[in-house]
Write a structure and sequence with these properties.
Number of helices: 11
Number of domains: 3
Number of strands: 12
Distance between the termini: 59 Å
Oligomer: single chain
Order of helices and strands: HHHEEEEEHHHHEHEEHEEHEEH
Largest sheet: 5 strands, antiparallel
Helix content: 55-70%
C-alpha cells in the first residue's frame, strides 16, 4: 500500500507544481550565488590591486638609493616570499628585492596582472603590478593570492552545499504537498465510492479552510444534497403513487366487478361508468399535477419570466376565489403597499402558487372565518383562522402526497404545497409555514439578495 502511494506521488498535480517551483527557485538561487561569488571575487581582487598601488607609489617616487634600501629591507622581512618585490635593470637583470625573475613576457605595464610562481614544487597564484622608472629600470610588486583563493573555494563549497540543501528541502516539500494531495483525493474518492454504493447521505470531506479543494467539495456537496432531495422526492412519489393511487383504482375495479357480477339495469351500468370516469379524472388530475411539478422543477418555464407586480397577482387570485369564499361566508381580503412590489417571474405560475395557498386556506377555514392575503417587500403572506397545522407536521406537509390528519377526508391529491414549493424554488422564493394561533400562516418570502436590492 505504501509503495502504491509512493508511485502515485509523481503523478499528482501538487507534486509537479512543487517540483516546478523548486526548479525555478534553484535557478534563481544559482543566479544569486553566481552573482555573490562574482562580486566577492571582484571585491577581493580590487583589494589586492589597491594594496599593490599603495606599495608601488612610494617606491616609484623614492630616490634610487632609498628605493634599493627599502627593497632590501622588504626582502629581509618577507622571508616566505608571500609578497615578492623586485627591481630590474633595463636589460632585465635583477637589481634588488626578493623577486629575481620577470614573471611574464611581455610584461603589462601600469596595470595589475596575474601570474604563477613555483612554491614548494607546485605553482602558486600571484597578482603583480609593473612600472618603468624614469631611469629605465623596472619595478615589480606582487602579492600571493592563496588566502583569497582559499576564501573563494570555501565560499563556493558552501554555495554548492546550499544548493544541495535547497534541492533536498524542495524535494521533501514536494513529497509533503503531494502526500497531502493524495490523502485528500483518497478521502474524496472513498466518499464518492460510498455514494456510488447508494449512501446518498455521504458528503465529500472538507477542512473548512475555504481553499480551492474545499470550495469545489462544497459545490459538489450542494449538488449531492440536491440529488439526495430529488431522489427522496422520487421515492416519496413512488410510495405515494403506490398508496394513494391504489385506493381509487381499487374502488373503480371493485365497482365495475360488482356491476358485472349481479344483474343490473342500464341505469346501474351508467352510474358505474360515471363513477369510473370520475375516478379516472381524479387520477389524470393527479398525474397532470405531477407532470407540472416536474416541468417547473426542470426550469422549463424560466423562459417565460417577465416583470410582474405581486400586488396585481394577489388581486387577481382574490377576485378569482371570492365566490368560493362567499359560499362558506368567509371574509377574503388582501392588502398591498403603495406602488406595488415588482419582481422577475412567470405570472401564471405565481398565480397558480398563490391560488393553491388561498384555495387551501378557504378549504380548511370554518364558516364565517377569515382569510387574508398581504403583499409587502418581504413577499406574500396568506393567513387563515382554521385548525392550522401541528408544528411536527409542517415539514412533512411539503412532501408529495403527504396530507395532514385533518385533511384526509377532504378532496385532493396532496400535491398542492409541493407545486407551490416547486414554483417558489423556480422564482428563488422561500416557502415558510408557521402556526398563526389560531390558524396557519404561509409565506412566500423573497430571497435575501432580492430584499437587499429593494431596500
Amino acid at each position: 500500500m505504501l509503495s502504491t502511494r509512493l508511485r502515485d506521488l509523481p503523478r499528482t498535480t501538487g507534486f509537479r507544481v512543487a517540483l516546478l517551483f523548486m526548479g525555478l527557485f534553484t535557478v534563481l538561487a544559482v543566479l544569486l550565488f553566481g552573482l555573490v561569488y562574482w562580486q566577492t571575487s571582484a571585491y577581493l581582487t580590487s583589494r589586492v590591486d589597491d594594496f599593490l598601488n599603495r606599495e608601488a607609489a612610494p617606491l616609484y617616487a623614492a630616490p634610487p638609493d632609498v628605493r634599493i634600501q627599502r627593497l632590501q629591507e622588504h626582502a629581509a622581512a618577507d622571508s616566505g616570499q608571500t609578497r615578492p618585490f623586485g627591481l630590474f635593470s633595463a636589460a632585465g637583470e635583477p637589481v634588488a628585492g626578493n623577486l629575481r625573475v620577470i614573471p611574464v613576457q611581455p610584461l603589462p605595464l601600469g596595470r595589475p596582472f596575474a601570474f604563477a610562481l613555483a612554491r614548494g614544487g607546485a605553482p602558486s597564484a600571484f597578482r603583480g603590478l609593473a612600472r618603468t622608472l624614469p631611469d629605465g629600470e623596472l619595478l615589480i610588486v606582487a602579492d600571493e593570492l592563496i588566502d583569497h583563493q582559499a576564501f573563494k573555494a570555501q565560499l563556493l563549497r558552501w554555495m554548492v552545499w546550499g544548493g544541495i540543501l535547497i534541492i533536498i528541502l524542495g524535494a521533501i516539500g514536494a513529497v509533503i504537498v503531494a502526500a497531502e494531495a493524495v490523502r485528500r483525493i483518497d478521502g474524496v474518492t472513498n466518499a464518492i465510492e460510498r455514494i456510488m454504493r447508494g449512501d446518498l447521505a455521504e458528503r465529500l470531506p472538507t477542512r473548512g479552510d475555504q481553499g480551492d479543494v474545499d470550495r469545489l467539495a462544497a459545490a459538489v456537496n450542494r449538488m449531492l444534497a440536491e440529488i439526495e432531495r430529488l431522489m427522496g422526492e422520487v421515492m416519496v412519489v413512488c410510495d405515494g403513487i403506490a398508496h394513494d393511487l391504489r385506493t381509487p383504482l381499487t374502488r373503480m375495479l371493485s365497482g365495475l366487478e360488482r356491476v358485472r357480477r349481479r344483474p343490473s339495469t342500464i341505469e346501474d351500468y351508467g352510474a358505474a361508468v360515471d363513477r369510473a370516469i370520475g375516478e379516472v379524472g381524479d387520477l389524470l388530475h393527479t398525474f397532470n399535477a405531477m407532470l407540472r411539478i416536474a416541468e417547473i422543477d426542470h426550469g422549463e418555464r424560466r423562459a417565460g419570466f417577465t416583470t410582474v407586480d405581486l400586488a396585481v397577482i394577489v388581486q387577481d387570485v382574490v377576485e378569482f376565489y371570492e365566490p368560493a369564499a362567499e359560499t362558506k361566508s368567509i371574509r377574503l381580503s388582501w392588502t398591498a403597499p403603495p406602488g406595488g412590489t415588482e419582481m422577475q417571474g412567470d405570472p401564471s405560475l405565481l398565480f397558480e402558487a398563490v391560488g393553491n395557498l388561498v384555495d387551501n386556506a378557504i378549504k380548511f377555514t370554518p364558516e364565517y372565518g377569515r382569510v387574508t392575503v398581504s403583499v409587502d417587500r418581504g413577499g406574500i403572506v396568506v393567513r387563515d383562522d382554521g385548525p392550522g397545522i401541528p408544528p411536527q407536521e409542517i415539514e412533512a406537509m411539503l412532501t408529495p402526497f403527504r396530507r395532514g390528519e385533518s385533511s384526509r377526508q377532504s378532496p385532493g391529491s396532496g400535491l398542492g404545497l409541493t407545486l407551490v414549493q416547486a414554483v417558489a424554488r423556480l422564482h428563488e422564493l422561500d416557502l415558510v409555514i408557521e402556526a398563526a394561533e389560531p390558524g396557519c400562516k404561509v409565506v412566500l418570502a423573497l430571497a435575501q439578495q432580492e430584499r437587499a436590492r429593494r431596500a
